[in-house]
Amino acid sequence: MIKVLIADDQQLIRESLKIVLNATDDIKVTDICADGFEVLKSIAKNQPDVILMDIRMPKMDGTLCTKEVKAKYPNIKVIILTTFDDDDFIFSALKYGASGYILKGVSTKELQKAIKTVNQGGSMINPNIATKVVSLFSKMAQGNFAIHVDEKGSNEITNAEWRVIQQVGNGLSNKEIANKLYLSEGTVRNHLSHILAKLNLRDRTQLAIWAVQTGATLKDFGENNA
Prior knowledge:
Blueprint: E1 2-7, H1 11-22, E2 27-33, H2 36-46, E3 50-53, H3 62-72, E4 77-82, H4 87-95, E5 100-103, H5 108-119, E6 124-125, H6 130-141, H7 151-154, H8 159-169, H9 174-181, H10 185-199, H11 204-214
Parallel strand pairs: 1-2, 1-3, 3-4, 4-5, 5-6
Helix pairs in contact: 2-3, 3-4, 6-11, 8-10, 8-11, 9-10
């Protein structure tokens, strides 16, 4: 059962999402919140797996709340669910560790899929803002938003780990990486844990940005058994 917390300042939206998601067999809404401070209080009591986070909320907005959540609870996945497709919102959400960015108005089926995808370690970006994300990553690759890593650790990355980094940079989920590289999902998770530790990075979003910056997505790291 995937435990979901809903954060939105509009009561009608909160209640509607709760009804829709609780009708799904493997999803349970543990709480609904009106702002970021309520989210942080609720997490301590309910320990959700995934948070559906609105951007514009009073007291503490969704981007700042995402930053706080990922700093204190890195294993909790955050999906930004908003009406805004502003570049700054998108970049801030990704920078602070959001696993998804989708626009309100998506179908119930698409929302359920997004929750299940990020809960399994993947990412979900609304098609309507995909071009904006590509543009942002292009700027990052040009060094406008540099991600810095531990230099010694980067020299210790193995070819097997580079292949995983490459697929993270291409936006693949753990399951997709496992299928592509003929590995188990557990092995992929172990690789990612070691990679993040070596590079001193917070999460896979930072890793994906760094992979694009370094050109890892375009390199050939040989066969999988190397």
